């Protein structure tokens, strides 16, 4: 296996949670920062099998078995290495590349890449304190960074000249340009030149603490304000979370991560007591970023700017987080106030206290979605309500966990009932109270036939059915009878709606003292016809 490229394997490990992979075959429970269960490789009654999400490793204290998602898949499913890779790639939604043995040049390039990055970081650090870096040093100190902070985050300065190209002129040009720090000249015979010039430099680390790229900030007012290294063999923006190498331990201690919009915000948050803060890098937040974070902790606070762009980013984040939600996830949203970003707030005298208040008052994911639809749809009109419901339910359908999905639906229907005024025609199905006997039967059906309940979940939640404590499956209706019971509920509640509408039409006619208009008369005939058809269906169902 060592003769093959590790890039794809690393992507699998980044994409897939080892707790999710192992949890498909071993029931796990969380204790501290680890998951525990009974070892699948030997018989035991007391759990001694530990799974560490952060490291992506498992270890059994009973039999000594250990490894990662690849070895676990190979051993538990009796697969050869290529088959295990294909199995995991299918889980991750990735296409398996053709594996080729590494040649000597490839191995040399890997070592050279990280050596160049490390040497470049030292060069930039030295130039920050050199005479030509005086302005950059003054600027970063003015932003509230101490020399200790500068050293910790290895902040540096890239001067106007081609210092990197000059320092590594003895290396192969292909190895140098592969890092993205140096580019070839477009002029025939021209010398290679530095990509970063006159920039305040922030190293970008991978999760293991190796420098894989740089982010440079403009110091002369030119746009864009920040530029990042181009993507390379070892640096992918969608798979790199800025600040994660520094935040790992704090994420564990705080039992959450905080995501802000930019790297300066992330560093300033870490410096000011929020060490669990990270940021996406040079691109919008991606599902890959969230998957990588969830390997450390599934509790996330999104802290975005309070402007329209921040609200838009938050809405996108909510959509991305849905597929990776688990019952143990706690996803919240906080917003900096008055158009400020976290850095602006932290500059103030009591900035730390203000930021703590903002983070502590973060709202839940379901509450954020509720606020979002009320802000973007005219919920006072039937059409607006229908559009809002379609959006909310559409987002909830992305949740993979059935129980959690229904909890979100129940939240929506409860909030809708309490906050929206409905006309009968605005709904397809009314929202009556469900009886105790009906609830008991539905709970038994949930225990024995969860797929049936999921198929009719929207209706069942609308009528107030609860599934937190499903009754034992013993003595439950057969599946055909269970489905007949649910269909009969639908018909009965539809019949109630029709009778209520008929009462409203009749009251309208009697209250006005005049005969009904053509539309009302036509609707009354339609309602009478629907009542007759529905009663016939109920009768037929009873005879089956």
Percent strand equals 5-15%
How far do the termini sit from each other? 61 Å
* Widest beta sheet: strand line-up: 1-2-3-4-5
Give the tally of β-strands. Answer: 16
Pairing-aware structural class of the strands and helices? alpha+beta
For the report, how would you describe the main beta sheet?
Answer: 5 strands, antiparallel
Nearest-integer average pLDDT? 83
Query: What does the radius of gyration come to?
Result: 30 Å
Secondary structure: helix percent:
40-55%
Can you offer a commentary on this structure?
Residues 422-432 have low confidence and may be disordered. Helices cover 50% and strands 11% of the residues. With 544 residues, it is α+β, with helices and mostly antiparallel strands. The strands form four sheets. The chain has a five-stranded antiparallel sheet.
Write a short abstract of this structure.
With 544 residues, this protein is of the alpha+beta class. It has helices spanning 7-15, 18-23, 69-76, 81-92, 104-128, 134-142, 147-153, 163-167, 173-177, 244-254, 263-271, 287-294, 308-321, 342-347, 351-360, 365-376, 382-396, 402-419, 436-448, 450-455, 457-462, 479-512, 518-543; strands at 29-31, 34-37, 49-52, 57-60, 66-67, 156-158, 182-183, 193-194, 199-205, 211-218, 226-228, 257-259, 277-278, 299-304, 330-335, 363-364.
């Amino acid at each position: 296996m060592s003769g093959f490229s590790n890039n794809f394997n690393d992507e699998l490990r980044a994409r897939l949670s080892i707790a999710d992979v192992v949890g498909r075959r071993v029931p796990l429970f969380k204790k501290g920062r680890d998951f525990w269960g009974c070892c699948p490789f030997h018989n035991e009654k007391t759990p001694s099998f530990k799974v560490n999400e952060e490291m992506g490793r498992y270890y059994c204290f009973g039999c000594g078995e250990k490894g990662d998602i690849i070895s676990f898949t190979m051993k538990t499913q009796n697969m050869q290495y290529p088959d295990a890779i294909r199995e995991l790639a299918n889980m991750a939604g990735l296409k398996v590349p053709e594996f080729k043995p590494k040649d000597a040049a490839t191995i040399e390039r890997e070592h050279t890449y990280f050596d160049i990055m490390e040497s470049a970081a030292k060069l930039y650090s030295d130039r920050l304190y050199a005479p030509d870096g005086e302005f950059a040093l003054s600027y970063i100190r003015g932003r509230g960074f101490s020399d200790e902070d500068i050293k910790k985050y290895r902040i540096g300065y890239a001067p106007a000249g081609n210092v990197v190209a000059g320092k590594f002129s003895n290396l192969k040009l292909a190895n140098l340009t592969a890092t993205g720090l140096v580019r070839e000249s477009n002029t025939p015979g021209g010398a290679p030149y530095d990509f970063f010039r006159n920039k305040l430099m922030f190293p970008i680390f991978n999760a293991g603490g190796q420098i894989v790229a740089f982010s440079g900030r403009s110091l002369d007012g030119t746009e864009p304000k920040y530029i990042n290294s181009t993507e390379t063999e070892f640096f992918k923006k969608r798979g790199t979370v800025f600040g994660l190498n520094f935040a790992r331990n704090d994420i564990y201690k705080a039992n959450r991560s905080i995501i802000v919009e930019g790297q300066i915000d992330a560093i300033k948050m870490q410096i000011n007591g929020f060490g669990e803060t990270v940021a996406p890098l040079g691109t919008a937040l991606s599902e890959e970023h969230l998957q990588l974070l969830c390997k450390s902790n599934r509790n996330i606070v999104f802290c975005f700017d309070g402007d329209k762009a921040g609200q838009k980013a938050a809405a996108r984040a909510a959509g991305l987080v849905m597929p990776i939600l688990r019952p143990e996830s706690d996803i919240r949203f906080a917003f900096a106030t008055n158009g400020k970003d976290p850095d602006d707030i932290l500059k103030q005298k009591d900035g730390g206290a203000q930021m703590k208040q903002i983070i502590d008052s973060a709202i839940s994911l379901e509450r954020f979605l509720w606020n979002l639809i009320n802000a973007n749809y005219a919920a006072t009109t039937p059409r607006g309500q229908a559009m809002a419901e379609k959006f909310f339910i559409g987002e909830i359908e992305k949740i993979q966990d059935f129980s959690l999905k229904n909890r979100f639906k129940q939240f929506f229907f409860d909030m809708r009932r309490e906050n929206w005024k409905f006309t009968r025609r605005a709904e397809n199905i009314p929202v009556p109270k469900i009886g105790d006997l009906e609830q008991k039967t539905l709970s038994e059906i949930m225990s024995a036939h969860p797929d049936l309940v999921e198929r009719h979940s929207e209706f069942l939640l609308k009528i107030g059915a609860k599934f937190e404590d499903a009754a034992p499956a013993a003595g439950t209706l057969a599946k055909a009878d269970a489905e007949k019971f649910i269909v009969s509920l639908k018909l009965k509640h539809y019949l109630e709606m029709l009778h209520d509408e008929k009462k409203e039409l009749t009251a309208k006619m009697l209250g006005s003292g005049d005969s009904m208009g053509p539309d009302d008369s036509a609707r009354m005939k339609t309602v009478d016809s629907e009542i007759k058809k529905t009663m016939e269906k109920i009768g037929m169902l009873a005879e089956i």
